[in-house]
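For reproducibility, we list the full input for the C2E complex.
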Amino acid sequence: AKADGKGTFRRFDPALDARVRARRNLEADLRRAIAVQEFELHYQPLVDARTGRITAAEALVRWRHPERGLVSPADFIPLAEETGLIGPLGQWVLRTACTQAARWPAHIRVAVNLSPAQFRDLRLADTVKAALTTSGLAADRLELEITEGVLLADEERTLATLTRLRAAGVSISMDDFGTGYSSLSYLRRFPFDKIKVDQSFVRQLPGDAESAAIVRAIITMGTCLGMAITVEGVETAEQFAFTTAEGCDQVQGYHVSRPLPLAEFLSFVDAREAA
Ligand code: C2E
Ligand code: CA
Ligand code: CA
Ligand code: CA
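The corresponding predicted structure, in tokenized form, follows.
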């Protein structure tokens, strides 16, 4: 047993110790990976529901690990958020996405995910503006995706940051819409440009009546509020047909394309534009 400093003793737990050590190793590995920029961005196209044209692509980070191969963001973003490493990693993502997108055809925008921790940083708006200036990407070609987690923090501060970002010409999307708690009241208080309907509502389309009703209602509500609607996680032709018939603005999902490495994404764009 070890003293915890307050005069009481805890029993040594080997399983907990192993988890703590694994976490510490992963954290050190992540820190190293950030220093040597061991990451890459894959891009998943968003298409216009009416024309089928590519209007944007979402940047999704992957860790190109020397031993573990390509590591999914689900396996390191949460730790990056807990440890504050999301700061430098998020900056890399933002700069890289802007720099790469600046060379795309001008009608294709880029969407970048921001974690709540990045949003709490008061310098965020300046960081974003600097990424635009350095890359030469026009502000109206950048969309920032945030989740409800961002809005749980200090409301005044969040609103101030959102307002500064929009004043800079950047647009803001509410990601994973419908999975949090107070989605509807947030829509009234914060200036979003776009709502992304969460994949969990799409999974059972078009057969499931409840899912269909929810997706239909979100599309109607968002449209009435002047927000564009993207439906994500569209995997089948039936789901694509349903969501476009219901009047969503953009579709994203495996039915259109999986996230692709930059070169493949650009080939995909060329092939689509030629078609
Ligand atoms: P997200 O922002 O909701 O991104 C969509 C996720 O759904 C991506 O997973 C994408 O590959 C996956 N997806 C797209 N279409 C389909 C589909 O038709 N079916 C299914 N089953 N899945 C689909 P990915 O790339 O593994 O990213 C997972 C999450 O990691 C993202 O969820 C986002 O929250 C986070 N993430 C990824 N990149 C970044 C980043 O650069 N910064 C931050 N802060 N978070 C990131
Ligand atoms: Ca997203
Ligand atoms: Ca999402
Ligand atoms: Ca998600």
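The longest strand covers residues 54-65. The CA atoms of residues 257 and 268 lie 9 Å apart. Both points were considered when choosing residues for closer inspection.
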